[in-house]
Structures are given as C-alpha cells and as structure tokens.
Amino acid sequence: MTAKRILIVGGVAGGAACAARARRLCESCGIVMFERGAYVSFANCGLPYFIGDVIVEEEKLLVATPQLFRDRFRIEVCTETEVLRVDRERKMITVRNLGSGEEREEPYDALVLSTGARAIRPPVEGIDLPGIHVLRTIPDSRDIRRVVETASRALVIGAGYLGLELAENLVRRGLAVTVVEAAAQVMSTLDREMAAFVAKHLEANGVDLRLNCLVERFTEAAGGGVIASLSSGDDLVVDSAMICVGVRPETTLAAQAGLTLGRLGGIRVDEQMRTSDPAIWAVGDVVEVRNVVTDEWQLVPLAGPANRQGRLAAASILGKVKSGAGYRGVQGTSVCRVFDLTIAGTGVSEKGLKAAGIDRYEKVYLHPGNHVGYYPGAKPIHIKLLYDVTDGAILGAQALGEAGVARRIDVISMALQMGGTVYDLEEAELCYAPQFGATKDPVNLAGMIAANHLRGDHPLAKWEELVDAHAQVVDDQSEATRLLSLILRDPASEAQIVDVRSAAEFEAKHIPGAKNIPLERLRERLSELSREREIWVVCGVGLRAYNATRILLQHGFTVKNLSGGMQTYDSIEGTKSPKL
Amino acid sequence: MTAKRILIVGGVAGGAACAARARRLCESCGIVMFERGAYVSFANCGLPYFIGDVIVEEEKLLVATPQLFRDRFRIEVCTETEVLRVDRERKMITVRNLGSGEEREEPYDALVLSTGARAIRPPVEGIDLPGIHVLRTIPDSRDIRRVVETASRALVIGAGYLGLELAENLVRRGLAVTVVEAAAQVMSTLDREMAAFVAKHLEANGVDLRLNCLVERFTEAAGGGVIASLSSGDDLVVDSAMICVGVRPETTLAAQAGLTLGRLGGIRVDEQMRTSDPAIWAVGDVVEVRNVVTDEWQLVPLAGPANRQGRLAAASILGKVKSGAGYRGVQGTSVCRVFDLTIAGTGVSEKGLKAAGIDRYEKVYLHPGNHVGYYPGAKPIHIKLLYDVTDGAILGAQALGEAGVARRIDVISMALQMGGTVYDLEEAELCYAPQFGATKDPVNLAGMIAANHLRGDHPLAKWEELVDAHAQVVDDQSEATRLLSLILRDPASEAQIVDVRSAAEFEAKHIPGAKNIPLERLRERLSELSREREIWVVCGVGLRAYNATRILLQHGFTVKNLSGGMQTYDSIEGTKSPKL
Fold it and tell me: What residues of B are annotated to the active site?
C-alpha cells in the first residue's frame, strides 16, 4: 500500500471515524484533520443532557481529544482551523488558522469532506436578538446552560428530536417550556397518529405544545428576555428561545470546489462515498444517501450512518473495499427518549411511502405489553408496521412506549436489512422470560397480524376509511363537533361497527354509532347483524376483534378488524384532523 | 373445511396455543382440551416470582381459565382429567376423571400431545423426605411459598435457569441459600468462561454456590428440616431443598401409543409437528426439535417454541400449512434474569459446536457498554460471538450484563434466523441515542471485530492456547498456584505477551510474564520486541490491543490480539480450570 496524504475536513462523527480507520489501515499515511471549532469528536448527541445537568461535567462530552488522536493514532489535528478553498487541479486546500488569521496550503492525495450540517435559522424578524439560541456545539450548550441557571420560561421552536430532548431537559431544570411547531404533528419522522402519543405525553409532562404554529416575530421584552409573536395571535414572553428547526448540509466548501450536489442540497456520493471528484470523498450530515426501501436520495443527519460512512471512506481511499461491498444506504433507524417515552423507528413511514409513490403497502397497529401482564410493571408498546402487500416485505416500523421499544425496532431493523418479511417476524425466536417479553413477543405479534392479513385470514379496515367518509361534511363545524362527526358513521350507511368489548368498557368510551356485542356473546347474537353490509369489528387493541373477525368470517359475514382497536382510535382522535 | 374433532392432551403453553388457533381456523370443529392438573394455560415461567412475592396474587398466574376457553373459544376444557390410553386403530382415547375416578372414551379425528415434561428427581437417598420440593405447578409453588414463610435456610439443587431464578427469589424472601451444581459451571447453555460471570454475580449476592458438587444423601434433621450430605463432605442443614436439575419429556402416553421416540427421549415429529401416526401431532417440551445451526435433534423446553409449535400443529391439522412452510427448527434463544444480571443467548454455544463436530468456527469476546460512556449509568455487556470461518455465518451468541442484553441477543437472533453473517452485524443500523447505545452498537462491534478477523486485518489469539500450553504441568499443584501457572507463559517460550494498557492499569493486575508498553508509546518502542516470536497483545477489553495489532502488523511483526482483553482473562481465571 502506498502511503497517501489524507486530509479530513471536519473532526466530529464521520470525520473522526474516517481518520481512525485510515490509520488502522495505513500506518505510513499522513493524516490531518481540520476542525473549525475548538473540539473534535465531541458528543453532540449529549448536548441536551449537558444542559439538563444529566451529564454534569463538560469534559465527559469530549469523546476523543486532539491529544488522543496524536498519541494513539499519530493523526494531526488542527482545531480552530477553517478550510477555505479546494484547488482540485493541484490537489491542494487552503486553510486559515482562526486564532492567528494565518493562511497556508496543504496538499492531499485524498480529501474527505465531513463538514456536517448547520442549524437552520429561519428568516424571522428579530431572530438575532440576545436570548435566541441554536444548539450545535459545546460553546452553544455552555451558553444555554448559563441562561438556564436564571431563566424561568423558555420557548423551543421545532418539535423534532433535538427540540423535544431540549424541552425535556429544560423542564428538568425547572423551566416552564412552550414548544411551537409549524407542522400539524411533532417528530416528522413519525406518522401523524403515532406522533399523537408523543404530543399527549409532552402535555402530560407540562409542556405547552403548539402545533400548526409559527413564530412570526421576535421583539425585546421590557423586563429582559424576548417576546415571541405567534401565528396563533399569542405573544409569549420568555427568557430564552431555542431554534431547533433542523439542519442543512454545510456544503459551502463543496460548492466552492464545484462538486456535484443533489437536489436536496447535500453532496452526491457513490457507493464508496466518493464525490464527483475521484480524489474527494464526503461523509456524514453533508451527503445525500440512498434510502434502502424507497431507493430515493435522502438527508439523514444521524451519527450511526455518519460513522459507518467515515469507516467506508477510509477503506475506499486505501483500496480496501471489494467491488459490490459499498454503502448499502440508510434505513433511518432512530430512537429518542422524551420524558418517560421512548420513540423509535426504522425504514419508511407511511407518509414517506406515499411521497415516494409506493402504494402497494399495508399496515397494522398493535399495542402489546413490553412483557407479560402477570409480571408487575408491564408497559404498552404502540407499534405500527408497514409492509409490502405483494410479498410481505417489511417497509418500516414505528414504536413508542416506556420500555422495550428500541429492542423491538432493532429486531425489525435487522429483519428489514436482511430483506425479511412479516412471515419472518412471525417466526422470530426472541428472548422470553416474564420480565422480558412474552411467548408471542410484540415483534411476533406484529408479524402474525400482518401475515394473517396477507393470508386472507384476517381482513383489516383502515381508520382513514372511517374518517374520510365524513371528512367533507365537517369543514365548517367547530373543532369539538367536528371531532365527533369525523368518527361518527351513520349506522344506516354502508358499514356496521361492532364493538366486541364488555358492556362496561363500551360504556366508558366507544365510537359513536357502534353496536356493542361482547365477544363471549357474539355467536349467539349473529342474527342481530346484517349480512348485506360490511361489518367493522373493534375492541381494545385488536385481539378480541381478531377472534370476532374469525367467527364472523366463518359464518359468512363480510368483516374487517379495525386494526389497533380503541387505542389507535384514541391516537387518531388525538391528531385533531381527519387527514392522517 | 370439514369439521374435525380435535382432542388436545395438556392445557399449558403449546396445547393452549394449539386449541385457540384451531378455533380461529375452524369455527365448526369440536375442540376438547384435557389437563391432568387443576389449571390450564398458567404462567409456569412466573412461579419463581410468585414464591419471591414479586407476583403477589395467585390469580395473576392464570393466563387463561377454562371459563375463558369456553366463553371466548367454545373450547371444552376437562381439568383434573388424565388421558390413560390412545387407541390409534379406533382413533379413541380413554380418559379418567381424577375426581370421580370415572373413565370414558373420547373419539378423535386429530389428537395433539402436549404433555410437557416432568421434573427429574435424581435417585438420591432420602429424596422423598418432607421439605424436599420440585417446582412445576401452581400447587408446587403454593407449597414452597408456605415453607418460605418460616424457613431461614434453603438448598437449591441445580444451577440452571429455574434453579437460579428460584435462588434469587429465596434470597429476596430473606433466606440463606446454597446452590449445588454437579457440573463445573452454572447454566449449561452458556460456555464456561461466560458462566463464570454469573457465578461471581451469585456469590456477590450472597448465594453460597458449590460447583462440581452433588447431594449424596438426604436425612431428617433433629430439629426439623433436612440434612443434605454433599460430595464435598459437608453436611448442610436446611429447612427446605428444591430440586431443579432439569426436566424429561413426559412421554408415557406416547410410548403407550407406540409412537416413534427420538434418541433423547422426546417424541419425533415432522416439520408440521406430526408424529409417526398421521392423526397424532405433538408439541412443546415433549418433542424433539431440530436445531437450525447444527441440524441435530434437541430437547428445548422453552415456552416460545412451544407456542409456535402449537399454532403450527393447529394449522397442519386443518390443512392450512403450505408445503415447505413448516417448522424451521429452534435456535434456542433464551434469556434469564438473576439478581441484577441478564443472561441471554441464541444459536449454539462453543461446546455445543464441538459436541456437534463443527470445528470451522471462530469466536470473539467483547465488553462494550450498553450505551455511550458519557451518558450516566452505562453498564458493560459481556458478549461472545461464534461464527463460521468459511463465510462468516453467525452460529451463536451469548451475552450478559445489567442492561440492554436481551436487545442485542434478539438482534443477533433475527440475523441468525435470516442466515446473516458477521458482515451483516457490522453493517446493522440500530437505534442510537445516548441512553440507548452508541454509534457503533455492541452488535456492530461484535460484527466488526469478527469481520476484521476474517478479512485478515485483525488476527486473534485464543485464550485456550495461552492456557493449554501449561495445562499438563500443573495437574498436581495446589489450586492457587495452579491458577497462576495456567496463565503464566514463560517469557522465553514461543509468544511474547504485550500489555498495551497504562502503567497504572498494568500495575493493578496483569498476566504474569506480560510486558507493558502503553499503546501511546508502542511505535517508539518497537525495538524492544522480537520479530522472531509471535506477539500476543492484550489490553482492557480488546480495543487498544486492536489498534496495537494494526500497528505491529504493518511494521512486519507476527501478532495476535487476545480477544476480550483482561475482562475475558478474568472470566477465564474464574472458571478455575484450564479446559474451557
């Protein structure tokens, strides 16, 4: 292997992983890492928890120091050094020491761009006022930590992962927190009815959540702090506002160098993370990646994929990637903890499938316990599984709950990676002991429901059908009436809704217009049901309704199970809008 | 579908699952379940926790009652009814009501044997004395619970899953507990060096653990209770002794009926759980199953597989299994919690591979945190991964730790099911947030270490090589000297052991004969190493040693990493014997 001079621009996540891997593969290469900030390889995922005082010592955030890179890897690290220009012809970059202002040139054989992403600052009047922060770096978190010491009211703008983690940590520090989100839901990676669980949980933890809401203007408050004027008409007076509306690839350098960018604004790379220039690689938040399910380009600013891309780029530079063994794309597996709720997902959401024009999918909802009910402390996991109706291939899954959530999504992620189907989930042999699961694990159950559906044993109704039929008549009604009407289906119309729970459960809450026949009485009360009209069966979570569906099907009725039962009904009601 | 009369012998786990599934598939079939005991579908996995008062109410153990089977499924349940004989010619069974003593015949179209397993009672003198218990049923647990109220000293015989769960629950109830185990390790499903972690944990929790130890005789104690005379020469006086030495398939009925049994004493079934009689199926602890890795017959008394087999038998009876879609065999995925430690595994252990004559395997050890170190509360997970050296196929994995263990084993289990390799584990895209993992999840790390090994980038040394070289010289030495000698490698012999940890770490504990060169100084001290002899590098968990291995390899040394580092050394030392 000939010794190469490898220059890496950006020393966090992908860049750092690339540098370390390159050294392991080539002891004789020159490796230099340039970082504009003061820190390399810091734990940016930990910043909200540093603000929340969960992580107490700042030094903990330094995963690896320049000293460690030098001593252990003989990697030269230039912090507070900005890379200004790439001269592709001469294979030379120009860098500036931000301390001294001095500029110099550095030659390369291979250049790696790991420039990451920058926080979006929306063009809102007053956004540069003091007290308005973004959170990307250790100095940012230090600033916010200082503010939090004395603040009592904070505004978080944006209800994505970072915004919600930050909201939780501000509440932990005793602040009153408002979160405003322009979209109709929190966490855009989730489908709306799943996001509704998160919204409820935020509100239960005292967060003032405003969906469909924008900040239109910031002004200085008389007594200090800022006034945020919202699109709802409210003026909020807060000590501090945090902008968490997402990130954009930091492609200034790539654009200057004339590298090909994608439609989404990230750098285009091949399967070995090589850019349009064969001597330049790019990794991490700055690149566009292929989604393994949709095969579409995406921006996926996650640390795990950045790390893998960095390792791969190093191997590619050093000629160690076998043909066909390149980057397989991203699944978008992710997890986030918000108060007591873990939210995780893999693959594509339903809206993602729709956006990609994939319509041959089906979905199931379920709400099993994280472990058997007889062992104390079981918590429900709310799961949505999306799969291909033609062959049962897994397309995506979302799950939330207080325990055991990441485990189930990780299993489904592994299955998806291997090209698995719902039949594979049905058969999966997973850990079972009373504290850990059930003989039918939630993953098995998801697979079983979907597989029974595909086998024709278990027809499923979609909640949207229930809702859509009435959506057009309610547009000018008040919100409360509208909600009810959305769900109310005229008993004389095409489908009969049969609720097979107990009379007591039915009394507590039911879908307006539904008829109550407890499962135990169903066989003897068949004569009360019409054979002319389709029956939609509902219960608590879908299990009794499944048994009812099997009974009715075999007695010649046309029947579907409203997947996920009243728990899913509640979550859809929680979306406060007919369109899922 | 023609209505069939389906009789099911045994109403727990597999039998109950079969009955419910049969009803869902066939509304018109007659389905009768016979159970010798007083309860069907009870939570036998919960019994130790009922004894420990973790599960307080006995009714919680009744997952489904005869009433529920009747009302919801129209399944007739005959409890306290023993099936005496099968007349295969006439398709008729003879049953006896254990209350009235009355016998009657019942005709079947399909018969399902789910007779389970019975606890082994070893032929030890005095085993039938009062105060000596087995734990299989609710009445058993009721008895033991009563004993525990007043007892202060208990003996558990057998250190398998049940024995250790029981030991934990007895300690929880304030008893002094001794566990005796005939084998040289606890938990026979684990390899010995992994089981050593469990043994240490038991001892740390006050359990008096005696390995390589048998009870030779029970006698009545003068003041009540029993005296257990051990093979070690000790006499233990305890209030109660619990026999947990395993189970044996309950094949009395199958043998009477002349069905084919396997070499291990279980019923032989085909891929649809059909016995040698085409009208008789068998499921659960009573059958032998194929191991998916070794393709050998096994007895796997686990609830998850029993449940799947029950469902499959129902589908088979009703002609709903497509050809080729039969039982895929078992992986043996299992989990157990003992005090604060979770122990889980999937696939085959190293000794299982050896026993099956599979020698083209390799293994890696690692000890990553369950999540990033900078987030508080990270706990190590001790992992052993076994894989095929020819293609990297996953053969088995064992893991233990305080958190995140079942999740990693479940992911590996899913990968194994899908025919995955260590390269797939390396690439897996798993949930990462600071509380949940790391950008390189423990599963990724296991895959990376193994894949780097297979690619030739990361040669690994086996701890046995270190140990075996000296095993023959120590046989007649005292245990303490023997332990040291086992590990001590004469520095003048073939390999040099280089410990690349810091001087302080090295001082605290190191392998006798090892030379300390901290990783940071390695490049400048290469001249101290011989190029003639193989170098074995060691560090804390294997990561620094991996970097050292890469450095030394590229400088032309012959080098191997002692996989798992000092943590694995400690566990091997803990086995107290050279043979792994």
Answer: 45
Q: A45 an active-site residue?
A: yes
ipTM of the modeled complex: 0.95
**Exposed/middle/buried for residue B412 (C-beta within 10 Å: 0-12, 13-18, 19+):** buried
Please name every residue paired with B249 in a beta bridge, in sequence order, or none if there are none.
B117
CB distance B434–A43 less than 8 Å?
Answer: yes
Q: Is residue A579 part of a domain?
A: no
Over residues B27-33, the mean pLDDT reads 97
Point out the residue among B49, B346, B544 whose CB comes nearest to the CB of A434. Answer: B49
Last residue of a domain, one of A213, A245, A277: A245
Q: Using one digit for the tens of pLDDT, what is the confidence trace for A29-85? A: 999 999 999 999 899 999 999 999 999 999 999 989 999 999 999 999 999 999 999
The CATH number of residue B379's host domain is: 3.50.50.60
pLDDT at A580: 35
Question: B interface mutation test: which of A1, A61, A172, A414 has the most B CBs within 10 A?
Answer: A414
Tell me the C-alpha distance between A367 and A373, whole Å: 13
Contact yes or no for B307 and A520 at CB 8 A: no
- Chain A residues within an 8 Å CB radius of B431: 333-335, 344, 406, 409-410, 413
Whether residues B490 and B549 share a domain: the answer is yes
Contacts across the A-B interface (CB distance below 8 Å): 231
**Same-domain check for residues A510 and A367:** no
**Interchain pair B60, A554: CB under 8 A:** no
Is residue A112 domain-shared with residue A261, that is, in the same domain? yes
| Mean pLDDT, rounded, of chain B | 92
Beta partners for residue A33, in sequence order:
A8, A77
**Domain assignment of residue B547, given as a range:** 460-573
Residues of chain B with C-beta less than 8 angstroms from the C-beta of A310: none
Q: What is the CA radius of gyration of chain B?
A: 27
Write the residue in A72, A333, A547 that is nearest to B430 by C-beta. A333
Instruction: Specify the higher pLDDT residue, A169 or A577.
Output: A169
Sheet containing strand B341-347, strands side by side: B334-338, B341-347, B394-401, B381-388, B361-366
Q: Which of B162, B430, B452, B547 to mutate to test the interface with A (most CBs of A within 10 A)?
A: B430
Domain boundary among A197, A218, A245: A245
DSSP-H helix ranges across B341-462: 350-355, 405-417, 422-427, 442-454
Q: Is A564 left (phi over 0), alpha (psi -120 to 50) or beta?
A: left
Contacts of B177 (CB under 8 A, 6+ apart): B153, B154, B155, B156, B167, B170, B171, B206, B207, B208
Question: Is A323 a member of any domain?
Answer: no
Together in a domain, B210 and B149: yes
* DSSP assignment string, B96-157: EETTT--EEEEE-SEEEE---EEE-----BTTTSTTEEE-SSHHHHHHHHHHHHH--EEEEE
Report the number of distinct structural domains present in chain A: 4
In the DSSP assignment, the letter for residue A378 is -
Q: Which of A119, A155, A113, A370 is nearest to A253 (CA)?
A: A113
Yes or no: say if B17 and B306 are a contact pair by the CB < 8 Å rule.
yes
Spell out which residues of chain B touch residue A551, defining contact as CB-CB under 8 Å.
Answer: 27
Are both A288 and A379 inside the same structural domain? no
| pLDDT tens-digit map of A293-351 | 999 999 999 999 999 999 999 999 999 998 778 999 999 999 999 999 999 999 999 99
Could you tell me if residue A529 is inside a domain? yes
B241 lies in the same domain as B252: no
Query: Are A232 and A295 within one domain?
Result: no
Q: What is the DSSP letter of A572?
A: H
